[in-house]
Amino acid sequence: MMTKEKKNWINSLAAQLQVSAMQMPLLKAMPKLELHAHLNGCVRTSTLLDLAVGENSKEKISNTDLESLIRKEDRSLTECFRLFPVIHALTTDHAVVTRITREAIEDFLLDNVVYLELRTTPKCNDLYGMSKRSYVEAVFAGFEAAGVMYKTDCDVQDGHRMHVRLLLSIDRRENAEAAMNTVQLAWDMRDRGVAGVDLSGDPAIGNWETFLPALTLAKELGVPLTLHCGEVSNPKEVREMLALQPRRLGHVCCLEEAEWRALLDSGIPVEICLTSNVRTESVSSMRDHHFAALYNAKHPVVLCTDDPGLFSTSLTLEFAIAATCFGLTNLELLIMGKSAINYTFADDKTKLILHGIFDDALQ
Ligand SMILES: [Zn+2]
């Protein structure tokens, strides 16, 4: 469940945003697609606290001010970077991976997300008998526990309200061989709920060319690709990423004029993460966010959360920010959501079901 602290935080942000009391429930009730959410960034504060005081946790973490760091809602960039390794250290075994997956889905369900693409880097950990494949199985166990539909072409089941797909992330700290293994795993598990591959991680780390062979293989196999792009200024990398023609790009915050024009010409849909971009200082302020320019240029965009747990946000809140800062109406937000069905990595049958859900809402 959402903690009391988080509810208060979201309510106070809504007040700051001057979203009317009437509008928040409407935004929440609206069907939504979440296409850019990292599993480890979705972990609830209450779960982190629970895991931090659990058995063996002292061996994993040694921060004396850990509890206040976990409890804090408006974390600074430095605090976010301090929390990342803590989350990583606390989410090591199969049971925890299954738990945080189930809880992440439950939280998106409460936000009326009808289709979710959750992404995560498959991890190996000999200490816990974990391989990349068993890690993915643990995520699937979370899908099962949450009662969602996640397999390709699966029929709508009674009581199952959400379609979920998994994207396997290549972390920029990994080497070429590990990246290749991840693409192979995505291909092997394509009928079991893995819908694509993502490139993510600290943009200052690693050389993008390391991952080109694996990403090229994904393209050859027909595994859909999304890339974290332009989180820091790196025109050469942005140009090369655009040349690869992935199915989607995440962020694209720091683009020079030539790369910006190339992005617009490419028509590649962009996953927009408003709060994340401001909090991580990729964008100087919400008013300066490039979402407005992309939206006004009719470039395909989709609003996403990135790390709702880490940044204390929700998709409803991101919609509220878009409504307040950029003047989008509820109808425009709904139409933007419906358009994004075409940018998902879902099969055609699932897309048709989603179009039906949005058409009902539009009426
Ligand atoms: Zn991300």
TrEMBL record:
It holds the Pfam family A_deaminase. It comes from the Eukaryota. GO terms for molecular function: adenosine deaminase activity; metal ion binding. One of its GO terms (biological process) is inosine biosynthetic process. Its cofactor is Zn(2+). Belongs to the metallo-dependent hydrolases superfamily. Adenosine and AMP deaminases family. This is Adenosine deaminase domain-containing protein. It comes from Marchantia polymorpha subsp. ruderalis.
